[in-house]
UniProtKB/TrEMBL annotation, chains A, B:
The lineage of its organism: Eukaryota, Viridiplantae, Streptophyta, Embryophyta, Tracheophyta. It comes from Liquidambar formosana. The keyword Coiled coil does not apply. Its main location: membrane. It is found in: Cell membrane. NCBIfam families: A_tha_TIGR01569. This is CASP-like protein. Keywords: Cell membrane, Membrane, Transmembrane, Transmembrane helix. It is a multi-pass membrane protein. The keyword Nucleus does not apply. It holds the Pfam family CASP_dom.
Length: 163, 163
């Protein structure tokens, strides 16, 4: 790997690390309360399994990203990193999809199922969830570019097998 | 690639193709109606964006799986297949996660958001969705095994780079 490529992958890993940490912080601090018919309702991320999964997945990804940053460049574990990058990108994609599906119902509701949108009552909560999703997207994009980069390195330019 | 490996990957691709087609059929035929307070309610997959996404993603995956089956073994496009396998597995994982998140709300509801479970009223619909999700899982598993196989072939046994 050339030096330019090495710096690029390092920057992408740093970006993914920062984005996942930001996603966790924004999601965990998403709280809002509303008074409806004199009853107080609270909205927080931990009430929704999909959002809890999102936080756990982002935590796993950020720990992995941090560990890879400290891996010495001559370590034999680097050969495993490509496989782990695939698994990590999948975990992130899955968590974002699940959280996005629920966030969509929260925003638009589903009249056929009788599920009302809740963003009108809890705008602060919805903004936080939206922000966390955007940060998660940035991390997933960084990992996808990294993955294509790694595959390009292993499989060769224009995807002709090197070996 | 040895002959045994080639047959294994062929079988995995056939399994993925069959599973995605079954997932589409089960999801598309998921219909149920219920009378609540003398009003007739219909449940069908197309009322939920996540389920529509699930069907579209499975259709894309099954078309891709079919095309790869007819790719001549000496074709230079095989080098692209590894990259496309990664993309396809991600698409499938994302679709299943989104559909599962919504199906979970349909089954258990979310009392904090005031979303009631609907499986009590539409048991046939819920069973179909559950079946489609299981078929989708089988397809995703087949693709994950295929992917690890391909990476193993490219990166080498014990993930030591061959080139």
């Amino acid at each position: 790997m050339t030096k330019a490529k090495r710096i690029c992958t390092l920057l992408l890993r740093l970006l993914a690390l920062a984005a996942t940490i930001i996603a966790i912080i924004i999601m965990v601090t998403s709280r809002d309360s509303a008074k409806i018919l004199n009853m107080k309702f609270n909205a927080k991320y931990s009430n929704t399994p999909a959002f809890k999964y999102f936080v756990i997945a982002n935590a796993v990804v950020s720990i992995y990203s941090l560990m890879v940053l400290f891996l010495p460049s001559k370590n034999s574990l680097w050969h495993l990193v490509l496989v782990l990058d695939v698994v990590i990108t999948m975990l992130l994609t899955s968590a974002i999809s699940a959280a996005l599906a629920i966030a969509y119902v929260g925003k638009k509701g589903n009249s056929h199922a009788g599920w009302l949108p809740i963003c009108g009552q809890f705008p602060k909560f919805c903004n936080h969830v939206g922000g966390a999703l955007i940060a998660g997207f940035v991390a997933a994009l960084a990992y996808m570019v990294l993955l294509l980069y790694s595959l390009h390195t292993v499989v060769g330019p224009f995807f002709t097998v090197k070996a």
